[in-house]
Amino acid sequence: MALDPDQLNPTDQAILKHLQEGRCTPAYIALETGYSKGNIRNRLVRLAEHGYVEQLGGGLYELVEDPREEY
User: For 27-55, how does the pLDDT look when each residue is reduced to its tens digit (9 = 90+)?
Assistant: First the structure.
């Protein structure tokens, strides 16, 4: 099930922006964006459920497919 770009909240947008630059941990994204680590983790889980990001282990995530580019 794909997400429409309007279903992406500001946290999702920030996560995707950072993952476009390379692999990141939730802690790094939280530090860079000012969002809480818990919020980042929750949104990463949601993005992973939709197949847009993948957890590589050790808390490291990478972008698989950018949902913003589908539209």
Answer: 999 999 999 999 999 999 999 999 999 99
